[in-house]
Amino acid sequence: MSKLGEPLNIGGVAVKNNVWMAPLAGYTDFAFRKQCYKFGAGLCFTEMVSAKGLHFRSEATAALLHTGEGEKQTAAQLFGSDPAILREACESEYLKDFPVVDLNMGCPMPKVVKNGEGSALLEDFPKAAAVVSACKRSGKAVTVKFRIGVKRGEPLAAEFAKLCEDAGADALTVHGRPREAIYAGEPDFEQIAAAKRAVSIPVIANGGIFSRQDAEAMLDKTGADGVMIARAAMTSPHIFAEILGGEEEWDRRAVIEEQIADMLPFYGERFTVVQMRKMTAFYLHGMRGAAKHKARLFTCNSIAALREALCDIFPA
């Protein structure tokens, strides 16, 4: 059985450990990923990026692929359904700094599904296979993130995992809930285990991991090769240190200030303020007076006001 902290090889790319940060739209930008890496994450992923957006040279889409100084090994997550456009994205200048491409076949959001993208590909095996094969021909290491099925009681994790492997995928991340559950309920360990048994490539288990105990249980119950953390990192990027047995405490204010300093030159003041109000609100989870502090945060309309609030929330 795999143990937390073990290195992995993904299509020839050496990854330092098997505790990964999930791609989260609206959150996993370069400044947040820096914090996850600092606390020990083995691999982080960009926010999900539209292959069509890159095809049409959207500046907003391209901005999602911005990397920070020293960020040498991050995976770019793409979504789409056209094999040719996805391969074009993989081969484009936009992805030159990304050794790993992750294909989103699990997003449950209706606006994505209705376009035949994300978890819609769970209902179109031939197209899913064509997408994986096309991206693999780009020469990148290719991973696929998907859910155990569409509806409760109708699992297809093992079958879909095998399809992806046969199409050329180098690793898989399996979210242990069906699409219709979104994020509700416990992950289905047996379906993740079935996917793991069906393939010979690494399988990363995702869903419901909020502590080291959760991560150990996930590996024990599924036989997976690693774990992927999602919502738990939004309230504490320090969770990677907790899971890997690192430092016990973290300085919330220092993390927030560093994110602000990293974001400001790239995004400008307005976006940085809006984003860091949101991120700071998450980081206050579990703190005494969090509701009052959050109310104040969302009145901040400048970096100066945000930093003044931080001084009051986290007095020296």
Distance between the termini: 45 Å
Order of helices and strands: EEEHEEHHEHEHHEHEHEHEHHHHHH
What's the CATH first level of the largest domain? Alpha Beta
Number of domains: 2
Q: What would CATH call the architecture of the largest domain? A: Alpha-Beta Barrel
Q: Which range best describes the helical content: under 10%, 10-25%, 25-40%, 40-55%, 55-70% or over 70%?
A: 40-55%
Give the structural class.
alpha/beta
Radius of gyration: 19 Å
What is the strand tally? 11
GO molecular function, one term: flavin adenine dinucleotide binding
Function: Catalyzes the synthesis of 5,6-dihydrouridine (D), a modified base found in the D-loop of most tRNAs, via the reduction of the C5-C6 double bond in target uridines.
Family: Belongs to the dus family.
Organism: Candidatus Borkfalkia faecavium
Write the layout of secondary structure elements.
Layout: E1 8-10, E2 13-15, E3 19-21, H1 30-38, E4 44-45, E5 49-50, H2 51-55, H3 59-63, E6 74-79, H4 83-91, E7 100-105, H5 110-113, H6 125-136, E8 141-147, H7 157-167, E9 171-175, H8 189-198, E10 203-206, H9 212-222, E11 226-229, H10 231-235, H11 239-244, H12 252-267, H13 269-283, H14 290-297, H15 303-313
Helix pairs in contact: 1-12, 4-6, 6-7, 7-8, 12-13
